[in-house]
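BUG: 3D viewer hangs when loading the predicted structure for this chain

Environment: internal workstation, default settings.
Expected: structure renders.
Actual: progress bar stalls at 90%.

Input used:
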Amino acid sequence: MKIGQFSLYMLGKEKRKAFFYTLTCIFSVMATFLFINMIYNEALYGGLHINNYGQANKILPVMVSFLTTVLIVAVNFFAYNFYLNSQTKEIGIFMLGGTKSFRIFKYLFVQNLVIFGIALVVGLPLGALLIPLTNLYMGKLSSIDIPLFNYSSTAFFATIAIMLLTLIYLAIVATGFIYRNEIKELIGMQKEMKKKDGRMLELPATLYTVLLFMPILMIIFIREPEITAVMSFVAVLGGFKGFCRYVVPKWILKLQRRYLITHKLGLISSANFHQLLVQGCSIMQIFLIICIFMNTYMINNVDNPTYLAVISVSYIMLTISVAMAMGYKILLETNHREITFKHLYKLGYTKNELSQIIRQEMLALFGFVLGILVVYIGATYLPYVLLGKMSIWFMLWNMGIFIIALIVVGIYGYRTYQKTMLKGMR
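C-alpha coordinates produced before the viewer hung:
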Protein backbone atom coordinates (compact mmCIF):
# COMPACT_ATOMS: atom_id res chain seq x y z
CA MET A 1 0.00 0.00 0.00
CA LYS A 2 1.36 3.43 -0.98
CA ILE A 3 1.94 6.04 1.71
CA GLY A 4 -0.90 8.25 0.42
CA GLN A 5 -3.39 5.37 0.46
CA PHE A 6 -2.17 4.29 3.89
CA SER A 7 -2.61 7.87 5.12
CA LEU A 8 -6.24 7.90 3.97
CA TYR A 9 -6.83 4.45 5.44
CA MET A 10 -5.53 5.55 8.85
CA LEU A 11 -7.54 8.78 8.67
CA GLY A 12 -10.69 6.74 8.15
CA LYS A 13 -9.79 4.23 10.85
CA GLU A 14 -8.98 6.87 13.47
CA LYS A 15 -11.50 9.47 12.40
CA ARG A 16 -12.42 10.16 16.03
CA LYS A 17 -9.00 11.78 16.56
CA ALA A 18 -9.49 13.99 13.49
CA PHE A 19 -13.17 14.82 14.08
CA PHE A 20 -12.70 17.82 16.35
CA TYR A 21 -9.81 19.15 14.26
CA THR A 22 -11.96 18.84 11.11
CA LEU A 23 -14.81 20.61 12.89
CA THR A 24 -12.43 23.43 13.86
CA CYS A 25 -11.29 23.79 10.22
CA ILE A 26 -14.92 23.88 8.99
CA PHE A 27 -15.76 26.57 11.52
CA SER A 28 -12.62 28.48 10.50
CA VAL A 29 -13.65 28.47 6.82
CA MET A 30 -17.20 29.52 7.68
CA ALA A 31 -16.10 32.35 9.98
CA THR A 32 -13.39 33.58 7.57
CA PHE A 33 -15.93 33.81 4.74
CA LEU A 34 -18.35 35.64 7.06
CA PHE A 35 -15.89 38.26 8.31
CA ILE A 36 -14.27 39.01 4.96
CA ASN A 37 -17.76 39.44 3.57
CA MET A 38 -18.42 41.89 6.43
CA ILE A 39 -15.35 43.91 5.43
CA TYR A 40 -16.85 44.38 1.95
CA ASN A 41 -20.39 45.00 3.27
CA GLU A 42 -20.74 48.73 2.54
CA ALA A 43 -24.34 48.82 3.81
CA LEU A 44 -23.06 48.07 7.32
CA TYR A 45 -21.05 51.30 7.43
CA GLY A 46 -23.88 53.61 6.37
CA GLY A 47 -24.41 54.95 9.87
CA LEU A 48 -20.77 55.76 10.59
CA HIS A 49 -19.23 59.19 10.98
CA ILE A 50 -18.17 60.74 7.66
CA ASN A 51 -14.60 62.05 7.58
CA ASN A 52 -13.22 65.11 5.76
CA TYR A 53 -12.91 63.13 2.52
CA GLY A 54 -16.59 62.24 2.45
CA GLN A 55 -15.94 58.61 3.38
CA ALA A 56 -17.28 56.56 6.26
CA ASN A 57 -14.78 56.10 9.10
CA LYS A 58 -14.81 52.30 9.03
CA ILE A 59 -11.24 51.63 10.18
CA LEU A 60 -12.22 50.13 13.56
CA PRO A 61 -14.92 47.68 12.34
CA VAL A 62 -12.70 46.59 9.43
CA MET A 63 -9.75 46.06 11.78
CA VAL A 64 -11.96 44.13 14.22
CA SER A 65 -13.22 41.89 11.38
CA PHE A 66 -9.67 41.36 10.08
CA LEU A 67 -8.16 40.60 13.49
CA THR A 68 -11.05 38.24 14.29
CA THR A 69 -10.34 36.36 11.04
CA VAL A 70 -6.65 36.12 11.93
CA LEU A 71 -7.40 34.83 15.43
CA ILE A 72 -9.93 32.25 14.21
CA VAL A 73 -7.45 30.97 11.60
CA ALA A 74 -4.75 30.92 14.30
CA VAL A 75 -6.89 28.49 16.30
CA ASN A 76 -6.16 25.99 13.49
CA PHE A 77 -2.48 26.07 14.48
CA PHE A 78 -3.34 25.18 18.09
CA ALA A 79 -5.69 22.43 16.93
CA TYR A 80 -3.15 21.06 14.46
CA ASN A 81 -0.39 20.95 17.08
CA PHE A 82 -2.71 18.97 19.32
CA TYR A 83 -3.60 16.71 16.39
CA LEU A 84 0.09 16.13 15.63
CA ASN A 85 0.69 15.14 19.23
CA SER A 86 -2.00 12.48 18.83
CA GLN A 87 0.00 11.06 15.89
CA THR A 88 3.26 10.60 17.79
CA LYS A 89 2.92 6.80 18.08
CA GLU A 90 2.39 6.40 14.33
CA ILE A 91 5.33 8.67 13.52
CA GLY A 92 7.49 6.84 16.05
CA ILE A 93 6.67 3.50 14.39
CA PHE A 94 7.50 4.98 10.96
CA MET A 95 10.89 6.17 12.21
CA LEU A 96 11.66 2.88 13.92
CA GLY A 97 10.90 1.13 10.62
CA GLY A 98 13.37 3.35 8.77
CA THR A 99 10.76 5.40 6.89
CA LYS A 100 12.26 8.56 5.39
CA SER A 101 11.17 11.93 6.73
CA PHE A 102 9.68 12.97 3.36
CA ARG A 103 7.33 9.95 3.39
CA ILE A 104 6.23 10.78 6.95
CA PHE A 105 5.62 14.37 5.83
CA LYS A 106 3.55 13.06 2.91
CA TYR A 107 1.53 10.89 5.30
CA LEU A 108 0.62 13.95 7.42
CA PHE A 109 0.12 16.28 4.45
CA VAL A 110 -2.34 13.97 2.66
CA GLN A 111 -4.45 13.75 5.81
CA ASN A 112 -4.40 17.52 6.25
CA LEU A 113 -5.22 18.09 2.57
CA VAL A 114 -8.31 15.88 2.87
CA ILE A 115 -9.41 17.60 6.08
CA PHE A 116 -9.04 21.08 4.53
CA GLY A 117 -10.86 19.89 1.40
CA ILE A 118 -13.78 18.76 3.57
CA ALA A 119 -13.62 22.06 5.48
CA LEU A 120 -13.90 24.13 2.27
CA VAL A 121 -16.70 22.01 0.79
CA VAL A 122 -18.75 22.17 4.00
CA GLY A 123 -17.62 25.52 5.46
CA LEU A 124 -18.28 27.80 2.47
CA PRO A 125 -21.98 26.80 2.09
CA LEU A 126 -22.44 27.10 5.86
CA GLY A 127 -20.86 30.55 5.74
CA ALA A 128 -23.23 31.53 2.91
CA LEU A 129 -26.17 30.40 5.04
CA LEU A 130 -24.86 32.27 8.09
CA ILE A 131 -24.37 35.62 6.33
CA PRO A 132 -28.14 36.47 6.03
CA LEU A 133 -28.66 35.58 9.72
CA THR A 134 -25.67 37.72 10.71
CA ASN A 135 -26.88 40.66 8.59
CA LEU A 136 -30.32 40.36 10.23
CA TYR A 137 -28.75 40.31 13.72
CA MET A 138 -26.45 43.29 13.01
CA GLY A 139 -29.30 45.21 11.36
CA LYS A 140 -31.48 44.86 14.45
CA LEU A 141 -28.62 45.68 16.82
CA SER A 142 -27.48 48.76 14.86
CA SER A 143 -30.88 49.87 13.43
CA ILE A 144 -29.27 49.98 9.95
CA ASP A 145 -31.05 48.61 6.89
CA ILE A 146 -28.62 45.87 5.77
CA PRO A 147 -29.62 43.66 2.80
CA LEU A 148 -29.83 40.08 4.03
CA PHE A 149 -28.25 38.48 0.95
CA ASN A 150 -25.24 40.75 0.63
CA TYR A 151 -22.47 38.50 -0.75
CA SER A 152 -19.02 39.41 -2.05
CA SER A 153 -17.23 37.27 -4.65
CA THR A 154 -13.95 38.69 -3.32
CA ALA A 155 -14.72 37.15 0.08
CA PHE A 156 -15.26 33.74 -1.55
CA PHE A 157 -11.88 33.69 -3.33
CA ALA A 158 -10.07 35.35 -0.42
CA THR A 159 -11.32 32.61 1.93
CA ILE A 160 -9.98 29.88 -0.36
CA ALA A 161 -6.65 31.71 -0.65
CA ILE A 162 -6.36 32.11 3.14
CA MET A 163 -7.09 28.40 3.69
CA LEU A 164 -4.48 27.39 1.10
CA LEU A 165 -1.90 29.61 2.81
CA THR A 166 -2.86 28.07 6.14
CA LEU A 167 -2.43 24.58 4.67
CA ILE A 168 1.06 25.48 3.40
CA TYR A 169 2.04 26.91 6.77
CA LEU A 170 0.74 23.83 8.59
CA ALA A 171 2.85 21.70 6.23
CA ILE A 172 5.90 23.65 7.44
CA VAL A 173 4.79 23.08 11.05
CA ALA A 174 4.51 19.34 10.34
CA THR A 175 8.00 19.29 8.81
CA GLY A 176 9.46 20.98 11.88
CA PHE A 177 7.57 18.57 14.12
CA ILE A 178 9.12 15.56 12.35
CA TYR A 179 12.69 16.87 12.32
CA ARG A 180 12.86 18.22 15.86
CA ASN A 181 11.66 15.05 17.58
CA GLU A 182 13.82 11.99 18.05
CA ILE A 183 12.29 8.52 18.30
CA LYS A 184 12.56 8.42 22.06
CA GLU A 185 10.79 11.79 22.41
CA LEU A 186 8.03 10.83 19.98
CA ILE A 187 7.21 7.61 21.80
CA GLY A 188 7.47 9.18 25.23
CA MET A 189 5.62 12.43 24.53
CA GLN A 190 2.17 11.05 25.25
CA LYS A 191 3.35 9.47 28.49
CA GLU A 192 4.72 12.70 29.92
CA MET A 193 2.50 13.56 32.84
CA LYS A 194 4.57 15.96 34.92
CA LYS A 195 5.55 19.42 33.79
CA LYS A 196 8.88 20.77 34.98
CA ASP A 197 8.95 24.09 36.75
CA GLY A 198 10.45 26.33 34.08
CA ARG A 199 10.26 29.58 36.01
CA MET A 200 13.38 31.74 36.02
CA LEU A 201 12.22 33.30 39.29
CA GLU A 202 10.11 31.39 41.80
CA LEU A 203 7.40 33.70 43.14
CA PRO A 204 5.23 33.05 46.22
CA ALA A 205 2.02 31.20 45.35
CA THR A 206 -0.04 33.87 47.12
CA LEU A 207 1.22 36.50 44.66
CA TYR A 208 -0.45 34.69 41.72
CA THR A 209 -3.76 34.65 43.60
CA VAL A 210 -3.54 38.37 44.40
CA LEU A 211 -2.53 39.17 40.83
CA LEU A 212 -5.51 37.25 39.45
CA PHE A 213 -8.27 38.43 41.80
CA MET A 214 -7.24 41.83 43.21
CA PRO A 215 -7.96 43.72 39.93
CA ILE A 216 -11.62 42.67 40.22
CA LEU A 217 -12.09 45.15 43.09
CA MET A 218 -10.38 47.87 41.06
CA ILE A 219 -12.55 47.10 38.02
CA ILE A 220 -15.71 47.69 40.09
CA PHE A 221 -14.54 51.11 41.31
CA ILE A 222 -12.65 52.32 38.20
CA ARG A 223 -15.34 52.61 35.55
CA GLU A 224 -13.18 53.29 32.53
CA PRO A 225 -13.32 50.48 29.91
CA GLU A 226 -9.78 51.10 28.63
CA ILE A 227 -8.29 50.88 32.15
CA THR A 228 -10.47 47.85 32.90
CA ALA A 229 -9.19 46.09 29.77
CA VAL A 230 -5.53 46.71 30.70
CA MET A 231 -6.01 45.54 34.29
CA SER A 232 -7.87 42.41 33.18
CA PHE A 233 -5.20 41.63 30.59
CA VAL A 234 -2.35 42.00 33.09
CA ALA A 235 -4.20 39.95 35.72
CA VAL A 236 -5.14 37.05 33.45
CA LEU A 237 -1.85 37.05 31.51
CA GLY A 238 0.35 37.23 34.58
CA GLY A 239 -1.76 35.46 37.17
CA PHE A 240 -3.89 32.76 35.54
CA LYS A 241 -1.17 30.34 34.41
CA GLY A 242 0.75 30.73 37.68
CA PHE A 243 -2.49 30.27 39.62
CA CYS A 244 -3.27 27.04 37.71
CA ARG A 245 0.24 25.59 37.95
CA TYR A 246 1.43 26.66 41.38
CA VAL A 247 -1.61 27.56 43.53
CA VAL A 248 -4.39 25.14 42.57
CA PRO A 249 -2.10 22.05 42.97
CA LYS A 250 -1.39 23.05 46.58
CA TRP A 251 -5.10 23.47 47.24
CA ILE A 252 -5.82 20.08 45.67
CA LEU A 253 -3.08 18.45 47.75
CA LYS A 254 -4.54 19.91 50.96
CA LEU A 255 -8.02 18.78 49.90
CA GLN A 256 -6.77 15.27 49.22
CA ARG A 257 -4.96 15.00 52.55
CA ARG A 258 -7.81 16.37 54.67
CA TYR A 259 -10.98 15.12 53.00
CA LEU A 260 -10.30 12.79 50.04
CA ILE A 261 -7.71 10.41 51.47
CA THR A 262 -10.46 7.82 52.11
CA HIS A 263 -12.58 8.83 49.11
CA LYS A 264 -11.27 6.62 46.33
CA LEU A 265 -13.24 8.35 43.54
CA GLY A 266 -12.52 11.94 44.61
CA LEU A 267 -8.83 11.19 45.05
CA ILE A 268 -8.47 10.08 41.41
CA SER A 269 -10.78 12.70 39.88
CA SER A 270 -8.98 15.55 41.70
CA ALA A 271 -5.60 14.30 40.44
CA ASN A 272 -6.96 14.04 36.89
CA PHE A 273 -8.47 17.54 37.17
CA HIS A 274 -5.08 18.90 38.21
CA GLN A 275 -3.36 17.31 35.22
CA LEU A 276 -5.98 18.61 32.75
CA LEU A 277 -5.76 22.09 34.25
CA VAL A 278 -1.97 22.22 33.89
CA GLN A 279 -2.00 20.78 30.36
CA GLY A 280 -4.77 23.08 29.11
CA CYS A 281 -4.08 26.32 30.99
CA SER A 282 -2.58 28.10 27.95
CA ILE A 283 -5.65 27.64 25.72
CA MET A 284 -7.90 28.48 28.71
CA GLN A 285 -5.89 31.64 29.25
CA ILE A 286 -6.47 32.67 25.62
CA PHE A 287 -10.19 31.97 26.04
CA LEU A 288 -10.36 34.17 29.15
CA ILE A 289 -8.46 37.06 27.51
CA ILE A 290 -10.69 37.02 24.41
CA CYS A 291 -13.92 36.97 26.44
CA ILE A 292 -12.80 39.75 28.79
CA PHE A 293 -11.40 41.98 26.03
CA MET A 294 -14.34 41.63 23.65
CA ASN A 295 -16.86 42.36 26.41
CA THR A 296 -14.83 45.38 27.52
CA TYR A 297 -14.83 46.80 23.99
CA MET A 298 -18.56 46.21 23.66
CA ILE A 299 -19.05 48.29 26.79
CA ASN A 300 -16.81 51.00 25.34
CA ASN A 301 -18.83 51.13 22.09
CA VAL A 302 -22.34 50.66 23.47
CA ASP A 303 -23.33 54.08 22.05
CA ASN A 304 -21.99 53.28 18.56
CA PRO A 305 -24.43 50.80 16.95
CA THR A 306 -22.23 49.84 13.98
CA TYR A 307 -19.14 49.20 16.04
CA LEU A 308 -21.22 47.33 18.61
CA ALA A 309 -22.74 45.08 15.90
CA VAL A 310 -19.35 44.13 14.42
CA ILE A 311 -17.73 43.56 17.81
CA SER A 312 -20.71 41.50 19.01
CA VAL A 313 -20.52 39.12 16.02
CA SER A 314 -16.73 38.89 16.42
CA TYR A 315 -17.14 38.03 20.09
CA ILE A 316 -19.64 35.24 19.36
CA MET A 317 -17.48 33.61 16.66
CA LEU A 318 -14.22 33.92 18.61
CA THR A 319 -15.83 32.48 21.74
CA ILE A 320 -17.10 29.44 19.84
CA SER A 321 -13.80 28.97 18.00
CA VAL A 322 -11.55 29.04 21.07
CA ALA A 323 -14.03 26.92 23.08
CA MET A 324 -13.78 24.27 20.33
CA ALA A 325 -9.96 24.39 20.45
CA MET A 326 -10.08 24.07 24.23
CA GLY A 327 -12.37 21.05 23.94
CA TYR A 328 -10.02 19.49 21.40
CA LYS A 329 -7.05 19.94 23.71
CA ILE A 330 -8.94 18.31 26.57
CA LEU A 331 -10.00 15.34 24.44
CA LEU A 332 -6.45 14.69 23.29
CA GLU A 333 -5.15 14.83 26.84
CA THR A 334 -7.81 12.42 28.09
CA ASN A 335 -7.02 9.97 25.27
CA HIS A 336 -3.74 9.22 27.06
CA ARG A 337 -5.59 7.66 30.01
CA GLU A 338 -7.03 4.52 28.44
CA ILE A 339 -4.41 2.28 30.09
CA THR A 340 -4.94 3.97 33.47
CA PHE A 341 -8.70 3.35 33.38
CA LYS A 342 -8.20 -0.26 32.28
CA HIS A 343 -5.89 -0.81 35.26
CA LEU A 344 -8.46 0.74 37.61
CA TYR A 345 -11.11 -1.57 36.17
CA LYS A 346 -8.88 -4.59 36.81
CA LEU A 347 -8.30 -3.39 40.37
CA GLY A 348 -12.03 -3.66 41.07
CA TYR A 349 -13.48 -0.25 40.14
CA THR A 350 -16.90 -0.67 38.55
CA LYS A 351 -17.96 0.94 35.29
CA ASN A 352 -20.31 3.23 37.23
CA GLU A 353 -17.51 4.35 39.56
CA LEU A 354 -15.19 5.12 36.66
CA SER A 355 -18.00 7.11 35.05
CA GLN A 356 -18.35 9.13 38.27
CA ILE A 357 -14.61 9.88 38.24
CA ILE A 358 -14.89 11.27 34.69
CA ARG A 359 -17.99 13.31 35.62
CA GLN A 360 -16.35 14.84 38.69
CA GLU A 361 -13.20 15.68 36.73
CA MET A 362 -15.04 17.44 33.89
CA LEU A 363 -17.39 19.30 36.24
CA ALA A 364 -14.42 20.59 38.23
CA LEU A 365 -12.54 21.73 35.10
CA PHE A 366 -15.37 23.57 33.35
CA GLY A 367 -16.75 24.88 36.63
CA PHE A 368 -13.33 26.40 37.37
CA VAL A 369 -13.10 28.21 34.00
CA LEU A 370 -16.74 29.34 34.11
CA GLY A 371 -16.32 30.62 37.65
CA ILE A 372 -13.39 32.88 36.77
CA LEU A 373 -15.14 34.15 33.62
CA VAL A 374 -18.40 34.92 35.43
CA VAL A 375 -16.55 36.78 38.20
CA TYR A 376 -14.43 38.86 35.80
CA ILE A 377 -17.06 39.72 33.20
CA GLY A 378 -19.74 40.20 35.86
CA ALA A 379 -17.45 42.67 37.66
CA THR A 380 -16.81 44.47 34.34
CA TYR A 381 -20.52 44.91 33.52
CA LEU A 382 -21.91 45.44 37.01
CA PRO A 383 -21.01 49.16 37.51
CA TYR A 384 -22.59 50.11 34.16
CA VAL A 385 -25.75 48.12 34.89
CA LEU A 386 -26.12 49.70 38.35
CA LEU A 387 -25.68 53.19 36.87
CA GLY A 388 -28.34 52.46 34.25
CA LYS A 389 -25.90 52.88 31.34
CA MET A 390 -26.41 49.30 30.18
CA SER A 391 -29.29 46.85 30.22
CA ILE A 392 -29.00 43.81 32.46
CA TRP A 393 -30.33 41.75 29.53
CA PHE A 394 -27.36 42.85 27.40
CA MET A 395 -25.02 41.69 30.16
CA LEU A 396 -26.82 38.34 30.53
CA TRP A 397 -26.86 37.78 26.74
CA ASN A 398 -23.10 38.30 26.41
CA MET A 399 -22.34 36.22 29.48
CA GLY A 400 -24.69 33.53 28.19
CA ILE A 401 -22.68 33.17 24.98
CA PHE A 402 -19.50 31.90 26.66
CA ILE A 403 -21.50 29.92 29.23
CA ILE A 404 -23.44 28.05 26.51
CA ALA A 405 -20.27 27.53 24.42
CA LEU A 406 -18.43 25.99 27.38
CA ILE A 407 -21.40 23.86 28.45
CA VAL A 408 -21.83 22.41 24.93
CA VAL A 409 -18.09 21.67 24.64
CA GLY A 410 -18.10 20.23 28.15
CA ILE A 411 -21.02 17.88 27.48
CA TYR A 412 -19.52 16.68 24.20
CA GLY A 413 -16.10 16.26 25.83
CA TYR A 414 -17.59 14.35 28.77
CA ARG A 415 -19.55 11.94 26.58
CA THR A 416 -16.62 11.31 24.23
CA TYR A 417 -14.22 10.88 27.16
CA GLN A 418 -16.63 8.49 28.87
CA LYS A 419 -17.25 6.45 25.72
CA THR A 420 -13.51 6.12 25.01
CA MET A 421 -12.44 5.16 28.54
CA LEU A 422 -15.30 2.75 29.29
CA LYS A 423 -15.27 0.96 25.94
CA GLY A 424 -15.49 -2.81 26.41
CA MET A 425 -16.27 -2.62 30.14
CA ARG A 426 -19.38 -4.23 31.65
